[in-house]
Amino acid sequence: MLHIGLIILSLLMATPTAAVEPAEHRFEFTYSVLAGEFPNHGAVDLYVPLPVEDAHQQILDTRIESSIPGEIGVEPVYGNRYYRVHRPANVNGPISVDLTWTVTRSRVLAQEGVLDETDRERYLQSNNLVPVGHEMLDPIRAEVHALRADESPQATARAIYDWVVDNVEYKKVGTGWGNGDTFWACSERYGNCTDFHALFIALARSEGIPARFEMGFPVPTDRLQGAVSGYHCWVQMYVPGTGWLPVDASEAAKHPQDRERYYGSQPADRVHLSTGRDLVLSPASESQPLNYLVYPYVEVAGVPWKVDLETRFSYRLLNTDSPAI
Question: Which ranges does the record mark as transmembrane (predicted)?
Answer without folding.
Answer: none
